[in-house]
Amino acid sequence: MSNQITLLDPSKHADLKIGNADFNHLAEQHILPISLHEFARAATEYPIVFVKNAETGEFQAVVMLGLKPGQNLSVAEGQWLGQYVPNVAKDYPLGVVLNADQPDKIWIGIRENCPQVGTEKGEALFANGEETPFFTQRREAIVRHFEEDQASKAILQLLAKKELFVQQALTINVNGEQRNINGLYMISEAKLNELSDEDFLDLRKRGLLGPIYGHLTSQHQVHRLARAEASA
C-alpha cells in the first residue's frame, strides 16, 4: 500500500474527487492491520493473529487475507470479496497525517497518485472552500479509526505485560500440501486461564474478554482461506 500521502489543502485540492472503491493496491497484501474494535466483525471471516515489531517489540493485530506473502484471497479485479472490509482499507486513499511538533493535532492527507483520485468523477472533497458532507463523514471516520488504533496499542502493551502472547506456527493442509506459517503470535488460552482472579477481572472490566475470545475462535477461519485458495 502506497505511503506517499499529501496534507489536504482546500485551496490546492479544491477540485479533487474520490471515485468508487478500488482495492487493487491490496491485491498482494496477505495481512492487514486492524484495531481491537474490529475484532467482532473481522473474526467472522478472517483469522486474527498478531505480529511483533522486531525493533520496538510492539504487537500489532492483523487479519490474514492469504496463506502466503503476495496472496490476498479477498480481492479480485479491484473488488473486495468479503463482507467485512478492514478500516485501513476503507479509509484509503485518505489517511492521518501527524506532525511531531504538534502531537495533539490530527490532519487528513490524501494519496494523490491513487487511481481513485481525480477531478472528473467521484465525490468532491470541497465546495466553495468548505469541506463537503462526504468529506466530513470520511474525516470523522478516519479520526475515530486512528483513536481506536491508538487505544489498541495501549491494550496490546497491557496484554504483553501480562505475558499472554506466545509465538505459534500454523499448519494447514492446502490441496494435499502441508504448509507451515511462521512468525505469528497468538494469545495463549492456557496463560489466560492461569491469570490470577485479579488480573482476569481486570481484563473483564476493561471489556477485553470479547476481543480475546474473538481472536481465539477466529483461528478456525484459516480453513476457510485454505478452501478459498484450493478453489481459486
Report what the structure shows.
This protein is an alpha+beta fold and 232 residues long. It has one domain (6-230). Helix content is 31%, strand content 25%. It is built from 7 helices and 15 strands. It has helices at residues 39-42, 87-91, 133-161, 189-193, 197-205, 209-218, 221-231, and strands at 6-7, 17-18, 31-33, 48-52, 59-64, 75-76, 79-80, 94-97, 107-110, 117-118, 123-124, 126-127, 130-131, 165-174, 177-187. The strands form 6 sheets. A 3-stranded antiparallel beta sheet has the order 1-9-8, covered by helices on one side. The chain has a 3-stranded antiparallel beta sheet with strand order 10-2-11, with no helix packed on it. The model has no long low-confidence stretch (mean pLDDT 93).
Secondary structure layout plus pairing:
Blueprint: E1 6-7, E2 17-18, E3 31-33, H1 39-42, E4 48-52, E5 59-64, E6 75-76, E7 79-80, H2 87-91, E8 94-97, E9 107-110, E10 117-118, E11 123-124, E12 126-127, E13 130-131, H3 133-161, E14 165-174, E15 177-187, H4 189-193, H5 197-205, H6 209-218, H7 221-231
Antiparallel strand pairs: 1-9, 2-10, 2-11, 3-5, 4-5, 6-7, 8-9, 12-13, 14-15
* Sheet with most strands: 3 strands, antiparallel
How much of the sequence is in beta strands? 25-35%
Number of helices: 7
Label the overall shape.
globular
What order do the helices and strands follow?
A: EEEHEEEEHEEEEEEHEEHHHH
Helix proportion range: 25-40%
Arrangement of strands in the largest sheet: 1-9-8
